[in-house]
Amino acid sequence: MTGGAPQQSAPLVSVVLTTRDRPRLLPIALACYQRQTYARRELVVVDDGSAFPADERAVTAVGGRLIRVEPGTPLGAKLNRGAAEARGMLCQKMDDDDWYAPHFLETMV
Questions:
Q1: Any residues with CB less than 8 A from the CB of 82 and at least 6 apart, and which?
Q2: Confidence at residue 7, expressed as pLDDT on a 0 to 100 scale
Q3: Residue 95: how many CA atoms within 13 Å on its side-chain side?
Q4: In the β-sheet with 41-47, what is the strand arrangement from edge to edge?
Q5: Could you give the count of Cα atoms lying within 13 Å of 85 in the half-sphere of its Cβ?
Q6: Residues 2, 6, 11, 16, CA torsion sign
Q7: pTM for the whole thing?
Q8: Nearest to 34 by CA among 84, 100, 107
Q9: pLDDT band per the 50, 70, 90 thresholds, residue 1
Q10: How many CB atoms lie within 10 A of CB 75?
Q11: What is each CA distance from 105 to 4, 40, 69, in whole angstroms?
């Protein structure tokens, strides 16, 4: 966070990112997460891909955790699983096919 409250008093934000068989889009989403200016964050990626499962090394490289669920799991169920695994006081959904400016999380908080 560049302004406002000091980092130690800022709430932890859990970012839940769902994906399914999107090997070209997931790296972009991970890069958007990595470039966020809000430091107190965690990433929970929930993947139900079968043809192109999410690369666990790419997720952990940006500090995230990968949760695999059954192929065909509905989006709502994936979001609920991610929220259940979240450790933060706040939870923010990010889509694997959207672009997020570096100040997105900071602005939302």
A1: 14, 16, 17, 18, 44, 45, 46, 67
A2: 60
A3: 5
A4: 64-68, 41-47, 13-19, 90-95
A5: 21
A6: positive
A7: 0.91
A8: 100
A9: very low
A10: 13
A11: 14, 10, 26
Q: For 50-93, give the DSSP string.
A: SSS---HHHHHHTTEEEEE--TT--HHHHHHHHHHH--SSEEEE
pLDDT of res. 93: 97
**Dist. CA 31–CA 80, nearest whole Å:** 24
First to last CA, the chain: 10
Tens-place pLDDT, residues 27-49: 999 999 999 999 999 999 999 99
Candidates 95, 73, 77, 74; CA nearest to 85 is 77
Element (H, E) at 31: helix 26-34
Predicted confidence band at 6 (pLDDT cuts at 50, 70, 90)? low
